[in-house]
Design brief:
Cytochrome p450-Terp, domain 2
Length: 165
């Protein structure tokens, strides 16, 4: 979140968590309120549905099991290297477009889409050309990612509530 705010607006925020916050609460507080309160990173009551959605999302990522970054960290630590090298290895693996960066690419695609019709045409064309659609599909799950129903439900709740943008 520090890098997000700094890269997007040049603001250096304090990233110390609010005592008693969960990881999801801390993440949302820094994301939403980092600019409002650059001295603490807190400020304001968090939206309960957003908090629950973030907690479920983090649990689904944790449940993901033996993915590329986890494997890379395990291999790195098996060499008896230091913890900093192991964490750097995991982060480097997450950066790849076939792993963690797929989420970023998916968001970029969503921002490019202008309407439902544009999305339908664009995705149909991409599928016809057999292009990868980052953030959708997974090489481990051949038919469906079992986590997707949970996050789809949360997304639906977020978008259907009053005042959603």
């Amino acid at each position: 979140m520090y890098w997000y705010h700094f890269a997007h607006s040049g603001v250096e925020i304090e990233t110390n968590p609010v005592v008693g916050d969960t990881m999801a609460e801390n993440f949302l507080r820094l994301l939403k309120h980092g600019l409002e309160n650059s001295g603490h990173g807190g400020g304001g009551k968090l939206d309960e549905l957003e908090r629950k959605t973030m907690e479920k999302s983090l649990m689904l990522y944790a449940e993901h099991g033996f993915n590329a970054s986890t494997f890379a960290v395990k291999v790195c630590t098996a060499t008896n290297t230091d913890i900093y090298s192991a964490i750097t290895t995991g982060i480097g693996t997450l950066k790849g477009p076939l792993h963690g960066a797929a989420n970023e690419w998916a968001i970029e695609l969503l921002h490019e889409l202008k309407s439902v019709e544009d999305a339908d045409k664009r995705l149909t064309d991409m599928l016809a050309r057999k292009e990868k659609i980052y953030g959708f599909g997974h090489r481990v799950y051949k038919k469906v990612d079992p986590r997707s129903d949970i996050i789809k439900h949360q997304s639906k709740l977020l978008t259907e509530r009053e005042g959603a943008t």
